[in-house]
Specification:
- The complex is a heterodimer of chains A (about 400) and B (about 425).
- Chain A has about 400 residues and is an alpha+beta fold.
- Chain A is about 50% helix and about 15% strand.
- In chain A, the strands form two sheets. Chain A has a six-stranded mixed beta barrel with strand order 3-4-9-6-8-7. Chain A has a four-stranded antiparallel sheet with strand order 2-10-1-11.
- Chain B has about 425 residues and is of the alpha+beta class.
- The radius of gyration of chain B is 30 Å and the shape is elongated.
- Chain B starts with a helix and ends with a helix.
- In chain B, about 50% of the residues lie in helices and about 15% in strands.
- A six-stranded mixed barrel of chain B has the order 3-4-9-6-8-7.
- Classes of the chains: A alpha+beta (about 400), B alpha+beta (about 425).
- Chains A and B meet through helix 2, helix 8 and helix 10 of A and helix 2 and helix 11 of B.
C-alpha cells in the first residue's frame, strides 16, 4: 500500500486546481459545520435550562380595575383575599397566589441585599412578592426549611410587614457558602445604607432560573429572593394560577369568569407562562432549525461537489487508467488509487479546516459571544466529513475501475 | 452578440437538464439562506428614518450624581433624561423638531357593545413626533402644534385600534374616552411596524409601537406616570406625581431633528450652556457630558441586533460561498466535456475572449435563475420565520434586499464559473482539430 502513495501524490500534481478546490471546499465545510453544531449545542443548553417551575401549567393573570372606588383604603386587600378564595375552589386549579412574578418574562429589575451578620457586602438579586401558596403555585421544590405560611403576610384587615424570605439555592450558594442559610437574616441595600427591618430566611428552593434581557452574563439568572406579601393596588392585582397537569385550557376561562363575578369593572389580562417561555426562546429555535438545515445541506453539497470533481478527473484520465489496466493493474488497484488520492486531499482539507474552524470560532466568540469550540466536536466533524468524502469517491472510482484496458489502444 | 451568447447559453443549459437543475438548485439554496438572514439582519437596521438617519438624534445628559455608578448604562451615560430636563431642553430654539416622550398606561373605554374597557399603552408625544419618525397615516394626521400648547384632548390611534373600536372607518373627529376624559381622534395610523421600536430604547426593542398617542402635556394635567423603565441615583422620597416630575429620576426619552451640520454644532453649544445654567442651580454634579446620537449609532451602542442574528447572517454568507465553490467542480466537468466543440469554434474564428464571456454568461444565467428561485424560496422562509418572532410583521424583502440578493446571485455565478470559463477558453484550436 505504501508504495502507491508516491505516484498518487505525483499524479495529483497534474491536477493542482482540482486538489486546491477540494481542499478549500472541505476546509470551509468543516469550519461551518462544526461551528454550527457548536452554536446549536449552546442554544439547546439554554433552552433545556429548567426554570425550576411547572412552566406548562402556570398562567399569569393580571386583574386591572377601571371603575370607581378601588382607591379606597382596604378595598384592594379585601379583593385579593376574596379573589384567591374564589379561584382556589375552581375545579382543575391546583394552587393560586397573588404574586408580582412571571417566570420567563424577560423584563425585570434587581435589588441589593446584604447579610445582617456583616459577612460579605451587598449583592444584586431578583426580588419578588407573593402570598402564602406562591412556592406551591410555582411548582418549586423546597429543599431546606419551609414554604410561606399563614401570618407571614397581611390577610383580612390584619396588616403584617414582611419579616421572612425564601431564597433560591443559587443565591444561598453565593451568600451562604457554608450551607447555613436558614435562620440567617438579610437587609435591603448595601451595608449601612437603609434602615429597614431585616428578613429572616425560612426556606430554600432547589431551582430558580429567570434570565433578563439586560443580564447578559447571566449572573442574576439564578439569584432570587421571595418575600411574603399581598401585592396590588389601583394599578392592578396580579395572580399566578397553577392548573392540574393538562387542565390549563379549561381553568383559564373559569378563573376569568370567577374574577368578573367577584367584582365587576376589572379588565383581565392572561399570559400563559409556556407562551412567554416560547417567545423568549423564539430566536434560539430559529437558530437551531436553520443551522441544522445548513449542516445537512452542506454535507450533501460537499458530497455532490466531490463526486463531480472525481468524476471529472476519472474522465480526464480515461486513457491513463486504460494504460495502467493494460500494464497489469487490477480493478482494485484503480479503485484504491482514487480512494487514497481523495483521502489524501480530504486530509489536507481537514487539516486546513481545523485552522479555519478555530478562526471562525474566534471571530464568533469576539463578535457575537458564541461558546468556545470543544476539540471533541472538531474530531467528530472530521470523522463525518472523512466518511462523507470516502462515500462520495466510491461511485466515480468504481466507474474508473471498470474502464477496460482496451481503451488504451484507442486514440480518443 | 450579447443576445447570441445568451441564446447559446440557454441552449447549453437545456442540453443536460439534470446537471442544470443541480447547478440552479445549488445556487437557489445558497441564495435562499443568504437572502433570508441578510434580510433578517437588515430588518433591525432598517427603520422609518432611512431618509434622515443622520438628521434625527437621541439626546442624553449626564445628570448623575458625583459618586454614583454609571455602569448600568450603555456608553456609560444615563439612558434617559429627567422631567425638569425634558422641559428645559424644549426651550432650545436650535432643533427644527423636538419631543420628549414616554409610555404610560391608560384605560380605554369604548362604546358599550363595541368592546369592554381595556388597558392600553399610550405614548406621550409632542406633535413633532409624527413627522420626525415618518409615522404613516391612513386618515387625518398628527395634531397641530397649538393643541400641544393648549393641552387639547386630541388622540392619534393606530390601525388595529381603529379597526377594533371604529370598524376601520375614517374615525377622525370621533370621540374616544381615555381613563376619565373624552379625546377627539385627530389621526389614524396606517399599518406601521418598524423592526425596532427605536424611539424607546429602554423597553423590549423588538416590540410594536404603542397603539395610542396623546399630547405630552396631558401627563401633568392627568398625572400619567411612566410605565416604562425608570431609574435614579439620588435618594428622594416620591409620594406624588409632583415629587416625581421634580425629582432627579430619569424616565423620559428625548429626540431632536437637526438637518444641517452647522446647527448641530450650535446645538452642542446650547447644551453646554444649558448644563452650565443647571449646575449654577445645584444640579449636574459631574463634569459636563452629553450625547447627541444618530439612530444607527444607537443601534450599535445598545447592541440592538441580537447576536444570533449577526452570527446567522455571517454563516449564511459563508454557506452561499461553499454552495458556489461546490459548483466549480460540476461546471468544470460540464465545460471541459465541451472542449471538442469549443476548439471547432476557436478554429472557425471565435476569439479567446468570446469563448470566455460565452461561458461566464452561461454561469451568470445559472446564477440569476438560481437566484430568482432562491428569492422566491426565501420569501416563503421569511414568512415562516416571521411567525416565530415578536417583530416578525416587520420582516420582509424590500427593494434594497432584492438588489442585494441579485448582486449575491451574480457573485455566486461568477465564483462558480470564472475558473471553468477561463480553463475552457484556453483550448488550442489546432490540436483538437487534429485529434478530431
Amino acid at each position: 500500500m505504501a508504495m502507491h502513495i508516491g505516484p498518487i501524490v505525483r499524479a495529483m500534481n497534474h491536477s493542482r486546481t482540482r486538489v486546491i478546490l477540494i481542499v478549500l471546499e472541505i476546509a470551509v465545510t468543516l469550519a461551518i459545520v462544526t461551528n454550527c453544531v457548536n452554536v446549536i449545542l449552546a442554544e439547546r443548553a439554554k433552552m433545556m435550562q429548567p426554570s425550576g417551575f411547572d412552566d406548562a401549567n402556570i398562567v399569569r393573570i393580571d386583574v386591572l380595575p377601571y371603575g370607581e372606588g378601588f382607591a379606597e383604603p382596604g378595598v384592594i386587600g379585601a379583593l385579593i383575599d376574596s379573589d384567591l378564595r374564589a379561584i382556589a375552589t375552581i375545579p382543575g386549579v391546583r394552587a393560586v397566589a397573588n404574586a408580582l412574578f412571571e417566570p420567563w418574562d424577560p423584563r425585570g429589575s434587581s435589588s441589593t441585599f446584604h447579610r445582617v451578620d456583616g459577612v460579605g457586602g451587598g449583592l444584586a438579586m431578583q426580588e419578588y412578592y407573593g402570598t402564602q401558596d406562591l412556592i406551591d403555585t410555582l411548582g418549586a421544590r423546597i429543599i431546606e426549611g419551609r414554604p410561606f405560611q399563614e401570618g407571614d403576610h397581611s390577610s383580612g384587615t390584619t396588616l403584617v410587614s414582611p419579616s421572612v424570605a425564601i431564597i433560591s439555592k443559587g443565591l444561598a450558594d453565593v451568600m451562604f457558602p457554608d450551607g447555613d442559610a436558614i435562620g440567617k437574616a438579610l437587609r435591603r441595600g448595601d451595608p449601612g445604607e437603609i434602615e429597614e427591618d431585616p428578613l429572616t430566611i425560612v426556606g430554600v428552593i432547589e431551582h430558580f432560573h429567570r434570565p433578563f434581557v439586560f443580564d447578559e452574563d447571566g449572573s442574576l439568572a439564578r439569584l432570587a429572593l421571595f418575600v411574603p406579601a399581598r401585592i396590588g393596588g389601583a394599578w392592578g392585582m396580579p395572580y399566578l394560577v397553577r392548573a392540574e397537569p393538562g387542565r390549563l385550557d379549561e381553568v383559564i376561562p373559569a378563573v376569568a369568569a370567577a374574577l368578573k363575578e367577584n367584582r365587576a369593572e376589572r379588565a383581565i389580562d392572561v399570559r400563559r407562562v409556556g407562551d412567554t417561555k416560547g417567545r423568549w426562546f423564539a430566536g434560539s429555535r430559529i437558530v437551531v432549525a436553520t443551522m441544522s438545515f445548513i449542516i445537512v445541506a452542506l454535507v450533501g453539497l460537499s458530497a455532490l461537489g466531490l463526486i463531480g470533481l472525481t468524476a471529472l478527473s476519472v474522465s480526464e484520465r480515461t486513457r491513463q487508467i486504460g494504460t495502467r489496466r493494460a500494464l497489469g493493474a487490477t480493478r482494485s488497484d484503480i479503485l484504491r488509487h482514487f480512494l487514497i488520492e481523495n483521502a489524501i486531499v480530504t486530509a489536507a482539507g481537514l487539516a486546513l479546516g481545523i485552522i479555519a474552524t478555530y478562526a471562525l470560532n474566534i471571530f464568533l466568540v469576539n463578535n457575537v459571544t458564541a461558546v468556545k469550540i470543544a476539540p471533541e466536536l472538531i474530531a467528530a466533524g472530521i470523522g463525518i466529513l472523512l466518511l462523507n468524502a470516502v462515500l462520495a469517491t466510491v461511485p466515480p472510482a468504481l466507474r474508473a475501475s471498470k474502464i477496460s484496458p482496451a481503451v488504451a489502444t484507442r486514440s480518443v | 452578440m450579447f443576445l447570441y451568447q445568451i441564446k447559446t447559453a440557454l441552449k447549453s443549459l437545456r442540453r443536460n437538464p439534470i446537471l442544470t437543475a443541480l447547478l440552479i438548485g445549488g445556487i437557489a439554496l445558497g441564495i435562499c439562506i443568504a437572502t433570508t438572514f441578510v434580510t433578517l439582519r437588515h430588518m433591525y437596521m432598517r427603520d422609518a428614518l432611512s431618509q434622515k438617519k443622520d438628521q434625527v438624534f437621541y439626546v442624553r445628559l449626564d445628570s448623575w450624581g458625583q459618586d454614583s455608578s454609571l455602569d448600568q448604562f450603555p456608553g456609560g451615560i444615563p439612558n434617559q433624561i429627567t422631567y425638569p430636563d425634558a422641559r428645559g431642553l424644549m426651550s432650545s430654539p436650535v432643533p427644527v423638531r423636538q419631543t420628549p416622550t414616554y409610555m404610560t398606561k391608560m384605560f380605554v373605554h369604548p362604546d358599550p357593545g363595541v368592546a369592554e374597557p381595556y388597558q392600553a399603552e399610550v405614548r406621550m408625544v409632542f406633535a413633532d413626533f409624527f413627522p420626525m419618525f415618518d409615522v404613516p397615516f391612513q386618515y387625518g394626521g398628527g395634531w397641530p402644534d397649538a393643541a400641544d400648547e393648549r393641552v387639547e384632548p386630541v388622540v392619534v390611534i393606530d390601525y388595529a385600534t381603529n379597526l377594533k373600536l371604529f370598524g376601520g372607518e375614517n374615525s377622525v373627529g370621533r370621540s374616544l374616552r381615555l381613563r376619565d376624559r373624552d379625546f377627539q381622534v385627530a389621526g389614524v395610523l396606517a399599518p406601521w411596524r418598524p423592526g425596532l421600536r427605536i424611539f424607546d430604547l429602554t423597553r423590549d426593542p423588538t416590540g410594536a409601537p404603542e397603539p395610542i398617542y396623546i399630547p405630552f402635556n396631558h401627563g401633568e394635567a392627568m398625572t400619567l406616570w411612566a410605565a416604562g423603565n425608570n431609574s435614579g441615583w439620588k435618594r428622594q422620597t416620591i409620594n406624588s406625581f409632583e415629587d416625581n416630575i421634580q425629582s432627579e429620576r430619569i424616565w423620559l426619552q428625548y429626540w431632536v431633528e437637526i438637518p444641517d451640520a452647522e446647527s448641530r454644532g450650535a446645538y452642542n453649544d446650547w447644551l453646554r450652556g444649558y448644563i452650565d445654567d443647571q449646575r449654577a442651580l445645584g444640579r449636574f454634579e459631574r463634569p459636563t457630558r452629553f450625547a447627541v446620537t444618530t439612530i444607527p449609532a444607537l443601534i450599535e451602542e445598545f447592541g440592538l441586533v441580537p447576536n444570533g442574528v449577526k452570527a446567522m447572517s455571517l454563516v449564511s454568507l459563508l454557506f452561499l460561498a461553499v454552495c458556489s465553490l461546490n459548483l466549480v467542480g460540476i461546471l468544470l466537468g460540464k465545460f471541459l466535456s465541451r472542449i471538442p466543440e469549443v476548439s471547432v469554434r476557436r478554429a472557425l474564428g471565435a476569439s479567446k475572449a468570446q469563448i470566455f464571456w460565452q461561458h461566464v454568461i452561461e454561469c451568470e444565467l445559472i446564477g440569476l435563475i438560481g437566484g430568482a428561485a432562491g428569492i422566491i424560496l426565501s420569501i416563503g422562509v421569511l414568512s415562516v420565520l416571521g411567525r416565530f418572532m415578536d417583530n416578525g410583521d416587520a420582516l420582509g424583502l424590500d427593494g434594497e434586499m432584492l438588489l442585494v440578493a441579485a448582486v449575491l446571485s451574480l457573485l455566486a455565478g461568477l465564483t462558480a464559473g470564472i475558473y471553468p470559463a477561463w480553463r475552457v477558453c484556453r483550448v488550442a484550436p489546432a490540436m483538437q482539430l487534429k485529434i478530431q
